[in-house]
Design a protein that fits this description.
Blueprint (H helix, E strand, L loop, with lengths): L6 E3 L2 E3 L3 E5 L10 E5 L2 H19 L3 H17 L1 H12 L3 H22 L5 E4 L5 E9 L2 E5 L7 H12 L3 E5 L5 H12 L8 E3 L4 H10 L5 E5 L2 H13 L3 E5 L4 E5 L5 H13 L9 E7 H16 L19 H16 L3 E4 L3 E2 L7 E2 L2 E4 L15 E7 L2 H9 L3 E2 L1 E5 L3 H10 L4 E4 L15 E2 L2 E2 L9 H4 E9 L1
Helix pairs in contact: 1-7, 2-4, 3-4, 4-5, 9-10
The structure holds ligand TXE.
């Protein structure tokens, strides 16, 4: 197994500097396997290989790029059950969701296989006689991809696929918690017929491998998804050397529930958005803003629904909520439970570490009744913890929804077209959901936020071209 979890540099599988074990958060007694960790020097080798391969891949025909991506997408889709199982073991996502994520990754590669063939430009008449103007898109060069652990297939896929589709070469660094998923995805990419060096995988720490990518003058663009604090460092280092950068960071996403909502639907949106994937989604509905007239009824139905949620081993049949991905994350979640209570929020349910038949990082989903000023209502917890805030009416609910330094996703449950349309226009977020959970997005349309949640062009869909290409304006005189 050790041989399998190596780094991939310049078309070869390489050992690293040290070896680490990837844990299974559902069962600490049966780890996923060992993997090698590279250091700064190995990352620099990968970066140099990517820079050397840039012309070969950048000038490869769109057909060749499309075929490679299509092959990758087809294999992921054909193996989605097996890949989903690996994801469930390594990250702790409940198996059906994990299989869904693997399928999503496959579809993303298929989508960008098509986009590789559709890189269009513009032709304009010049303001001067006898001259033609062509505006085209070209690859940026070497793209550094720094990924988080919460979507170990989907997020790398939505970065790797457009990078390769538009002719860039890649250095990919998965998060330390999910090296096996990073390896499995890379192993499939490694057999797609890319030139040596066009795609590289370097597992290792953020300080060594991540920083080497961020600081290298050979890396033309860095795409990062992770925490706000690391995002700020990535921003500083890339800005200092003038590299292109795209950041996706946290969220504190509101779900507004108005008195005229279908309450069963609203409860389902809240449960899905707040607790599925163990709350470890940047789009999680962590603030439930409920109109006073239905507040008590909503809370009591939500509690009833929460009682039916099964927390357990990610691979067990019937599990709704898998374990927290790591001990550190579980401790962060439990610390916020204490903070919430100390600040005077009322914990009405859950929020406790749970013992299961297998040793792992289990916790019960938590529901607080709180106030907008509470830290649990302002800071991203990144766990199965939601806080209900009471609003006097639509206007107050909207103001509360926007009262955050984040702006990734905002949702509303209402039967009123007027309020739905107003909210869609006035919610200060990159994505808005009407009668849907804040989490759960399509793979072919833009993804991203405003304010402190995101920086740079949108990811996914056709808008991905903004980040992964650079525009050239050519003037031709006959
Ligand atoms: O994130 P990090 P972590 C939030 C969430 C979570 C917290 C910590 O609140 O509890 O972040 O998670 C790499 N230079 N989110 O520690 O450290 C790192 O190796 C370059 C929300 O996992 O930001 C990993 O590959 N890279 C988020 C990636 O950055 C560095 C999803 C993210 O790790 C680096 C994940 C450095 N100096 C966490 N230091 C979301 N909103 O989706 C680390 N890295």
């Amino acid at each position: 197994m050790q041989n399998s979890f190596r780094n991939y540099i310049n078309g070869r599988w390489e050992t690293g500097v040290t070896t680490s074990t990837s844990e299974n958060p559902s069962d600490l007694a049966s780890p996923v396997g060992d993997y090698v960790r590279g250091d700064r020097e190995q990352a620099e080798l990968a970066i140099r290989a990517a820079a050397e391969a840039a012309p070969a891949w950048g000038f490869a025909t769109p057909q060749r790029r499309a075929d490679a991506l299509d092959q990758i997408g087809s294999e992921i889709l054909a193996r989605k059950d097996e890949l989903g199982e690996l994801l469930a073991r390594e990250e702790g996502k409940a198996l059906p969701e994990a299989i869904g994520e693997a399928a999503r990754a496959g579809n993303i590669f298929k989508f960008f296989a098509g986009e590789a063939l559709r890189t269009a430009g513009e032709k304009l008449a010049s303001v001067r006689p006898g001259i033609e103007v062509d505006v085209t898109r070209e690859p940026v060069g070497v793209v550094g991809i720094i990924a988080p652990w919460n979507f170990p297939f989907a997020i790398p896929a939505w970065k790797i696929a457009p990078a390769l589709a538009y002719g860039n070469t890649v250095v990919f660094k998965p998060a330390e918690l999910v090296p096996a998923c990073g390896w499995a995805l890379s192993e499939i990419v490694s057999r797609a017929g890319l030139p040596a060096g066009a795609f590289n995988l370097v597992n290792g720490s953020g300080r060594q491998v991540g920083q080497a990518i961020v600081e290298s003058r050979l890396v033309d663009a860095v795409t990062f998804t992770g925490s706000e604090s690391t995002g700020a460092q990535v921003m500083q280092a890339t800005a200092a050397r003038g590299a292109k950068v795209q950041l996706e960071m946290g969220g504190k996403n509101p779900l507004v529930v108005l008195a005229d909502a279908d309450l069963d639907q609203a409860v389902e949106c809240a449960v899905q958005g707040a607790f599925f994937s163990t709350g470890q989604r940047c789009t999680a509905s962590s603030r439930l803003i409920v109109e006073a007239a239905v507040h008590d009824k909503f809370v009591s139905r939500l509690r009833e629904r929460m009682r039916s949620l099964k927390v357990g081993h990610a691979l067990a049949r019937g599990t709704d909520i898998g374990p927290v991905a790591s001990r550190a994350q579980l401790e962060q979640n439990l610390a916020y439970i204490v903070i919430g209570r100390e600040e005077g929020a009322e914990l009405v349910m859950g929020g406790e570490e749970i013992k299961a038949p297998t040793p792992g990082h289990y916790m019960s989903p938590a529901l607080f009744l709180g106030k907008p000023e509470h830290r649990i209502a302002r800071e991203e917890i990144f766990g199965p913890v939601a806080v209900v805030l009471r609003a006097d009416g639509y206007e107050e609910a909207l103001a509360m929804a926007n009262d955050t330094r984040y702006g990734l996703c905002a949702g509303i449950c209402t039967g009123s077209l007027k309020h739905a349309m107003h909210f869609r226009r006035h919610a200060q977020a990159g994505m808005v959901m009407v009668n849907l959970p804040t989490a759960g997005v399509d793979y072919h349309v833009p993804f991203g936020g405003r304010k402190g949640s995101s920086h740079g062009p949108r990811e996914q869909g056709r808008h991905a071209a903004e980040f992964y290409t650079t525009v050239k304006t050519a003037y031709t005189h006959a």
